[in-house]
Structure formats: C-alpha cells, structure tokens
Amino acid sequence: MNKYIEELSKLLNVLSYQDKQDALNFYTEYLQDGDFKTYAECSEKLGTPQMLANKIIANYQSEHGSGYVRDKRNVSIVLIVLLCIIAIPFLLTIISIIFSIFVTIFSVIFSIIVTIFALGLSAIVILVVSFWLLFTNFWTGLFYLGLALVTLGIVTILFEPAKWLLINLLLITKNFCKWSYSQITNIAKKFF
Amino acid sequence: MAVQISSRLLDGSVLGLLSVKDYYGYALTQEVQKYIAVSESTMYPVLRRLKSNGLVTTYDEPYQGRNRRYYRITNLGLNSLKSIDIEWKQFKNAVDTMLKGDRHE
Predict the structure, then answer these.
(1) I need a labelling partner for A93 at 20 to 30 A (CA). Which of A45, A50, A70, A108 fits?
(2) Digit-coded pLDDT (tens) for B28-39
(3) How much of chain B, in percent, has pLDDT values that exceed 90?
(4) Do A93 and A187 fall into the same domain?
(5) Residues 10-39 in A contacting B (C-alpha not used; CB under 8 Å)
(6) In Å, how far are A36, B19, B89, B91, B105 from B102, measured between CA atoms?
(7) Residue B67 within a domain
(8) Burial of A122 by CB count in 10 Å (0-12 exposed, 13-18 middle, 19+ buried)?
(9) Contact, A162 vs A114, CB < 8 A?
(10) What sequence ranges are listed for the domain Transcription regulator PadR N-terminal (chain B) (predicted)?
C-alpha cells in the first residue's frame, strides 16, 4: 500500500501541494479502511497509480481549465527567467532605441520652440531699436520696423501649432508610459 | 448496466446518504456501491466537489492511531438535496411516461 501511495504521490506533483495532500490523505485512508495491503490489491481496486492519478488530475483540469496545473507553471517560470536573461541585451537595445527616438523628437520640437521664442525676442528688440531709428534714420528705421512686425506675425502664426505639437507630444509620452507600465504589470501578474 | 448515473444524480445520492448520518470515505463508497455500480475512484471527485461547493463539511476523528475524515451534510447541502430530488422526480416521470408508451395525444 505504501508503495502504491508513494507512486501516486509522485504522479500528483503537478497539483498544488494542498490538492495533492487532500487526494493522498483520502486514498491512504481509503486503502487502510478497505484493508488493501498489497500493491496488487490496491491496483485492482483503484486502478494503477498512473490511472488513478490521471483521473484525479483530469478532474482538476476540467474544473480549472488547462491553466491550472502547477508543474507547467513552474516550467514556464524557468523558461521565462531564461528568456529574460537571453532577452536582456535585446531589451536594452530596444529600450535605448525607443528612448533615443523620444529624445530626438523632443529635441526637434524643443529646438523649433526655442527658435520661435528667439525670433519673437529678436523681433521685440528690433521693434524697440527701429522706433529709435525712425527718428535718426527714418527709412532704415521703417525697414527694421517692418522686419520686426513681419517676424512677430510669423511668431504669432507659428505659436499655436508649436503649442499644439508640444502638448500632444507630452500627452503621447504620458500615455505611452502608462501603457507600457500596465503591460509590464500585466505580464508580471500573469506569471508571479 | 448500460444506464449510467449522472454526476448531478451521484451528488444527490451522496447527499441523500449523508442526510441520514455522517460517513467516512471508504464506508460511503461501500454504501453507494450497495445500490449502484460506481468505480472506487469516482467518489473522491464527488466529495471534493461537494465540499468545495459548501454542500458538505469534513471533520477528522481519530481511529486506531490515525485519522478518519468524516463528511457531514450542511444546510446548503440539504437544500441542494431537495432540489436534486425534485429534478430527479420530474425527469423520472418524464422518462417513465415515454417508456410506458401510454401517452395521451
């Protein structure tokens, strides 16, 4: 009987500890109460350990879906850890590529905005200077005044699209960070 | 016998036996086998299912230096027994009617 239960115990390793113990306790008690001593008697009553184990496990699987069995999970955790180790260089590369893309986009937009601000600032400076020039050298002053007004106009035109671009970029970045965070936590939840 | 008991009826039968007195696994299997042919490995899933659904509870009693796990029906189990009983009677009547062939059409 002990040999029978021992074999059964090994075969039930795919179940959680509690489920395995419950089943083993039940059948140990069963065989004791039925006074089945030899391995042959036990097998005759309950089927071979393999058959009985299959039946017990099949019963769990039909209830919990195939994802239940724990051994598979253990194997998959080992696989995932291995995969992670192998994937680290690739992952680092991908992360740095994504990061550099973001940095590039940011710097392009940042430079556009800085340019716009610089234009605006210089326009204001020229405006002030041109007012002063109007009194000393009228035509030059007028030229600079016109230049300053044109520049201010361009800045005003460009200001809204630039603002829109910046806000959207920030929103996209925020959403992307949120999304990747939730993906990572989902994956983590699935396996641990 | 070609007619097989369904798992719901087996649940009901076990609950019925447990409504009279508490049994331990082996004794319960023997009792069920007095009436119908079920394999020895059928009872464990049944009892586990009943327990996880809260229809029976278990308690251990020492017996010859080891424990025997007894099964006791709960109030939920008694209610379930009643409804299975009703379902079975309706089903039985329906099958009886068809088998006798004396339908009034």
Answers:
(1) A108
(2) 999 999 999 888
(3) 68
(4) yes
(5) 22-23, 25-27, 29-30, 32-34
(6) 50, 36, 18, 17, 9
(7) yes
(8) middle
(9) no
(10) 14-82
Domain that holds residue A116: 88-191
What was the pLDDT predicted at B103? 62
Q: Cβ of B25 and A55 within 8 Å?
A: no
| Contact flag A30-B66 (C-beta cutoff 8 Å) | no
When CB atoms are compared, the residue of A23, A47, A63 closest to B44 is A23
pLDDT at A90 over 90: no
Q: How confident is the model at residue B78 (pLDDT cuts 50, 70, 90)?
A: very high
My answer on whether A177 and A94 are in the same domain is yes
Reply yes or no on whether the pLDDT at B21 is more than 60.
yes
**Total structural domains within chain A:** 2
Assess if residue B105 is contained within a domain. Answer: no
Residues 6+ apart with CB under 8 A from B35: B13
3-state secondary structure of A52: helix
Residue A78 lies inside a defined structural domain of this protein:
no
In a domain, B55, yes or no: yes
Regarding whether A187 and A119 lie in a shared domain, the answer is: yes
Q: Are residues A96 and A183 in the same domain?
A: yes
Nearest-CA neighbor of B88 among B1, B16, B2?
A: B16
pLDDT digits (tens, 9 = 90+) for A104-161: 988 888 888 888 888 888 888 888 888 888 888 888 888 888 888 888 888 888 888 8
CA dist A2 and A10 (Å) reads 12
Number of domains chain B contains? 1
Same domain? For A117 and A161 the reply is yes
Check which CATH number belongs to the domain holding B86 and give it.
1.10.10.10
- Range of the structural domain that residue B58 is part of: 7-97
Closest CA to B36 of B1, B82, B11: B1
